[in-house]
Amino acid sequence: MPRPREFDEEAVLDAAIAQFWSHGYEATSVRDLASTMGLAAASLYNTFGDKRALYERALEAYVERGFRERVRRLEHHMPPREAIAAFFDEIIRLSVNDPHRKGCLIVNSAIELAPHDSHFHRALNGVLKDMEGFFSRCVAAGQADGSIPSELNTSDTAKALLASLLGLRVLARVNPKRELLEGAARPVLALIGVKPRARRKS
């Protein structure tokens, strides 16, 4: 009969996410992970597989707890145009309040792994398609209720919102200033009729 695990699997996965998020995939060794997670290397392998499998699990957990949870909360409880604005507002707030400038694990992975790893390229492309899909649904719903200009091309507008979001995440790693990030987002949000808000302190 196998022995029960003597650790909280979700807690050690959180530790792995933090390690990969701060240092990236290539710069993180199995020894780093075992130390951060508080596990022997054998327990890490037995529970999560090799480093690649653990990274995949960590990335999926990050996407579920971040992007997918945010989409469910905003899309189902806010009008479509406000949901888009709130999405950007939350990303800017997270970026401004990140003292270590870790950025977004999705974007970091896209830059580090997607160009030369076909498996992660497909996985990350799927996540970006989901992001674009969220924007597309909201734009279409906003056009239907009259809050977003009907003359906009729905698909192109969704792509513009996605590009702006990804650009913000990269920009914030260098200069996470609220005024800069809000200024960068303002033109694309103005396309869908979002009026500038009064400036707030970070």
Automatic annotation (TrEMBL):
| InterPro entries reported for this sequence | Homeodomain-like_sf, HTH_TetR, Tet_transcr_reg_TetR-rel_C_sf, TetR_C
Sorted alphabetically, which keywords does the UniProt record give? DNA-binding, Transcription, Transcription regulation
Domain HTH tetR-type residues, every copy: 6-66
GO MF term set:
DNA binding
- For this protein, the DNA-binding region equals 29-48
Signal as a keyword? Answer: no
Q: Does the keyword Transcription apply?
A: yes
Return the protein name: TetR family transcriptional regulator
Taxonomic lineage from the root: Bacteria, Pseudomonadati, Pseudomonadota, Betaproteobacteria, Burkholderiales
